Amino acid sequence: MEPILPGAPWLIAHRSMLGINKPYKVTLNEHDYVLWQNQQGEVFALDNICPHMQAPLSDGWICQDTNTITCPFHALKFDREGKLHNSEKVSSQPLLTPLDIIIKDDCIWTYGGHTPKIPIPVLIANVSAGMSFLGVAGEKSMRGTFLDSISINYDYNHQSGTHRDLFGIKANRIPVFEHDGYWAKVVQELDREDTTWNDILRNPLTLTAPKTYTGTLEYAFPALTTFRATFPFGEVLQVHVLYPETPTQTKTFVLVYSKPKHPILKPLLGQFVLSAVTTVVEQDTRAIEASYSRQPAKIRLPNEEIMFHAQKLYREW
């Protein structure tokens, strides 16, 4: 396939997603890689295909003594450089190609072997300053093109339909939309429907949700969408991540940060937010996967220029 947005920086994982000495498979632009992290916190990435009989190395295991990944078929071992370790001998030349990765603030980035076109964004560090990392939610591979998947993050009308049951939005205002190159900022004001007893029984924390709340979203095209909002129990930050696995498959996950008003609220806040984010991703996924093939729209909704801006960046890349 022609790579999608070659030269873009892709956030393919957070350290917490790897665990310790556990192979983790990543597919980027139809190429499979395996990542692993050792006990010292070093992260390595190689082609996922064993050069012997093409077994997926991500189904193997890590040998801690030699810091090698072991093929599940014949227990062949490969080090971080892709060199074969066999019978206490090391091959002189790599048999596998390492994937160049860059780690910033526990986030693992790569250009997928392409010449960088734009720098790795500093958005996450900027918006998460002073906040605590809660975890990763909503990790999922979606059946949908990257353009369709990214468009929903710039769509300021879908909350009223796609997320109706979760948020009960009755009014949506966008007082701010700014953009500069591949960065954009949106301020969104949302009015909620009255909370019902069924809402409270499903999730008692809905009692703490304000009738109107303001969210600030910032974008680092093409990989990141951040959403930050203040609630009665504290401040919450979501970092929505997207990258193309194949022409018709897109990977997503969400990094969640918080700043509770009191430390005792952190576990409760974490449980509530991670669960809500997972539900949001599931609802967005259903919306993308259930849609028919794209046709020219015959209806225009308010604030769609934000989505058109992202689509223009994609097409003019």
The secondary-structure element order is: EHEEEEEEEEEEHEHHEEHEEEEHH
Q: What portion of the residues fall into strands of 2 or more residues?
A: 35-45%
The number of E-state strands comes to 18
The neighbouring-strand order within the major sheet is 12-18-17-16-15-14-13
DSSP helix fraction: 10-25%
Gross geometry: globular
Number of helices: 7
**Rg estimate, integer Å:** 21 Å
Mind explaining what this structure looks like?
It is a single chain. With 317 residues, the protein is α+β, with helices and mostly antiparallel strands. Helices cover 20% and strands 37% of the residues. The strands form 4 sheets. Strands 12-18-17-16-15-14-13 form a 7-stranded antiparallel sheet. It has a 5-stranded antiparallel sheet with strand order 5-6-7-8-9, with no helix packed on it. A hairpin with a 6-residue loop joins strand 6 (68-70) and strand 7. The longest helix has 25 residues, at 266-290. The radius of gyration is 21 Å and the shape is globular. The mean pLDDT is 90.
